[in-house]
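To: structure desk
From: M.T.
Subject: fold request, one chain
Message: Could you run this one when you get a chance? Sequence is below, nothing fancy, just the single chain.
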Amino acid sequence: MRWRTINIFIPDSNPRSVKICDIKDSIVKAIFIPRSRLEKVSNRSDLTSPGIYFLFGKENEIGKPIVYIGEAENLLVRIKQHNAKKDFRNTAICFVSEKNNINKAHIKYLENYCCNQAIEINKCKLENSTTPTQSSLTEQDIDFVLNFFDDLKILITTLWYPIFEETKKEEKNILICKGKDAYAEGKYWEDGLVVFAWAHANLNESKSSKKWGQWMLNIRNMLIKSNIMEVKNNIYLFKEDYSFSSPSAAASVILGRNANWWTEWKDKNGKSIDEIYRQK
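Reply: Done. Structure tokens follow.
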């Protein structure tokens, strides 16, 4: 991916308040609105334009942000309507075109595409009860909308919601954690360590973990309750990718005991994370 220059403007000098974010040489602009600062954007003319919006709430029990995706011809009116109804929301991020060249058909297509991408990538819990209808567009308009999405994806990740960032399983970056009946492949990335689907975790925990590792047992129970991990053939099987904020937590859950992630995760040549990252 080529380099990009991103501008973030803070209208009231408070970095935790409203933020206006755009990319140089792009038509896409993001307006970040904390729920408590909605009155600060009441006079913004760009929010009376057509666009797409994301309502974010707190993370659920497995660490995924709750999000509702919608579209509107007047974003400010719609966000105010949601303010009284969507109690889970803490933050809204609206996306508009700097050139005002995005129409109703475009944003309906974009809304549908974003919902489908969110479901496929599975980095958030989507609050939409149904997938929005996809509008019919020409090939040129589809290309326009998908280019809009590419820049939207960069901006929404910059604003700390990487819900469209797919963690690809690349052979050169694979890390392995194994022991007894356990075998897991994962990837070390910005948010911690993602364990890929079909990983095997030891079924039984060590005696010491029952005394000192209650936090690990809690994570295991949460993953089972959320149907991410299940018992199969005398092991725990990961049914989908799962991102741990701590590689140590990932190793402990896989091995069923307290584990040092610097030494437990290794590449295919047997080099530990300690050798690959810390010592280097």
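Reply (cont.): The chain has a mean pLDDT of 91. Let me know if you need anything else for the meeting.
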